[in-house]
C-alpha cells in the first residue's frame, strides 16, 4: 500500500499539473491540508518536502508554500552546477540522452575556444536533456583529452563533472559564461521539441580547473519558454 504522504504528493502534483492549483499562488496551510486529507501535519510536511525537492513549490518563510510555474525551470547563471545536480531537484522529471561520444580532431573554432595547438585531440559529447517528457536542452561539450584522457558512455549519461571530481580527483574552479539568443539550427530542430520556436537561448561556457587549465568548452542550447535564468547580485 502506498504511503499516505505519497498519495497526498501525487494528488497535489496532479492538481498543479492540471492548472487547478495555479502558479504563484499559495498552497493551503499545513493545518488545512491535514484536515482536507484527513491526516497528520507530519504527513503533510513529508508531502510538501517532496513537492519542494521536485520543483513544484517553494517554501518561503512567513508566506508558506508558493506554487512554481512548472513550465519554467530556474537555471542559475552564476555558479557551476551540473545537469545531474539540477535534475536531482526534479526527481523523475528530468532525463539525459547521449547522442554522441567521440574522440575527434578539433575544428578551427573549437581549437580557438579551448586554446589548443595543432596536435591535441578532444572529446566531443552531445547530450539531449529531457524534462517532463520533452527534449528542451541540447548540450554540446568539447573537452581537452590531454586533461580528461578517458570518457565512457556511463560517465556521460550520469555526470561528467562528478566523474572529474570524484574519480579523477580534479577540482573544477570557475567558468566564463556568455548568453546569446540565436536562430535554431537544423540540429536543434532535429533533436529538440521546439514546438514552433525559431530561436534558441545559448549559454556558452569556458570551464577551468583550479590550476587555471581550460579543460572544457560547452554550448548549452535551451528552448526559450522553458527556463528563467536567475542570478543573485549585490551592490558594493
Count of discrete domains: 2
The level of helicity is 25-40%
How many strand segments? 10
Strand order of the largest sheet: 4-5-6-9-8-7
Strand content is 25-35%
Along the chain, the helix and strand elements come as HHHEEEHEHEEHHEHEEE
Q: Kindly, what is the distance between the CA atoms of the first and last residues, rounded to a whole number of angstroms?
A: 55 Å
Structural class: alpha+beta
Low-pLDDT sequence parts: none
Tell me the name of the CATH homologous superfamily of the largest domain. Answer: Chorismate lyase-like
Assembly state of the chains shown:
single chain
CATH class value of the largest domain: Alpha Beta
| Radius of gyration based on Cα positions | 21 Å
Query: Overall pLDDT, averaged?
Result: 87
Largest sheet entry: 6 strands, antiparallel
What would you say the CATH architecture of the largest domain is?
3-Layer(aba) Sandwich
Number of helical runs? 8
Shape estimate: elongated
- What is the CATH T-level topology of the largest domain? Chorismate lyase
